[in-house]
Structure formats: structure tokens, C-alpha cells
Fold:
Amino acid sequence: MSEKVASNVRNIAIVGPYLSGKTTLLESLLSITKAISRKGSVKDGNTIGDGSPEARDRSMTVEINAASTKYDGINFTFLDCPGSIEFAQETNNALIGAGAAIVVCEPDPARVLTLAPLLKFLDDWEIPHIVFINKMDRVCRDETHCKSNFGEVLEALKTVSKRPIVPHQYPIAKNNQLIGFIDLVTEQAYHYHPGAPSDPVAIPESLKAEEQAAREQMLEELANFDDNLLEELVENIEPPTEEIVADIKMELSADLIVPVFVGAAEKDSG
Structure:
């Protein structure tokens, strides 16, 4: 395989505990990238993953499911891995052959603790990985509860990860629902829209303090591996967006940090 072709190929494992929503996330990724014309659901038993009779009967992943798609000129192959403990070895085998992993977790601090063996494996094998906090729509009943829950989940993740946990997004809640997120790199807020791209909007006034605190946390973690960024922060110089993006790419690919994203795969949010 030529170097050019290889640079356009990504093999990504989707991992996480049983019922965290891995198969739904895969279905969402395939749907929004137009790899499939109609999104299935685990409930209806018509997803691309979990296609075997045993998986359908149990409503759970029992083997590795692979599916490919293309986005922004890059060819992705996603490996939907079992989350149940009895299939842990099969998941570990898939991870060793993957270039990176998406760790899917539920927005429950107590459930985050079940990620400890998986994150240890990823850390021990130095496999780059991000965390996707799924099902955020179930806990963002109001802004206050959404703030506290997100913070608690981040703190729980820090206790089970040897790598620094770096928030990349901050959730936005309103009228008893999750309505969008703030990109902490660009400081741009977005509103979700079912079946359509998110709209850029102004950061809500009520979240500006929290956004600033989360962004400072992100920059401080990145600066631990970039002296130039550290100098800029010490001198109160606002780092360019391009520099932050380059740092995240470098530090993620070197398995130095764990970026955290939020959303709700069932609704294609995030």
C-alpha cells in the first residue's frame, strides 16, 4: 500500500460497556456519512452491526462487526466491539489491530468506573483514544443538572484514566432537553437539528463562565506537552485556533491525552 493511500485510511474500534450505545453510534456514523440510506435501530433489530441471530436474540453485540464509510477524503473502517465482560478478549484482540478507539460511556459517574479495565488496556498498549459521552439527552433535563452531571462524569473519568482527560465540547441544555454543544477549541456554540447539520449560535450567557473554565482546563492539559503554548498561557496570550488543533492532533496521535466529546447517538446529536 502506498504511503498516500495509507494516510487516507483509518481503522477505528468502537468500545465501551454493554448498553452504552456503541452499535447505535456506528449506525449514526454510517447514516450521516451516507454509507447507508436508512438508519436502523437496535430496538427494531435492523442495524448494520449485531446482524447475527444470536446478537438479535440477545439485543447485544457478541462479535466484532466491521463497517466502512468515507468522510472528508478519509476512508474509515469502524469495528463495533462487544461490551459484555465475557467477550472482553475478542474486544482486546480487535483493539491491538486498530489505529485508534472511540470509548463510549453513559453519563453516569458510577457507570464510568466500569471503564477502568478497558482504559488500562488502551493505556498499556498506547492506543490513541477519545471518549464519547453518549445519551446526554437523558440527563440534561435542565441547565443546572446538565452542568453538574457533565462535571461529575469528567471527574470520574480522571480516576480511571492514566492519560489526562481533556474536554473538547461542553453540552448545552434548555427546556428539559439537550439542544447543542460548545466547541472549546473554537469557542463556537452549535444547536442540534434532527436530520441536518448543527447551526452555529452564540454561546449562552449563562454558560460563559463554565465554558471559560472548561477551556482553561483543556489548554492547561495541552500545555503540559507544548512549551510554546505554556509560555502563551503564562503571558496571557490567546493561542491561535490552528495551534490548539495541531496540539490536539499531535498529543492524541501520541496517546498523551484523551479528548472528551458529548452527544446522543440515537438522535444523531454530536
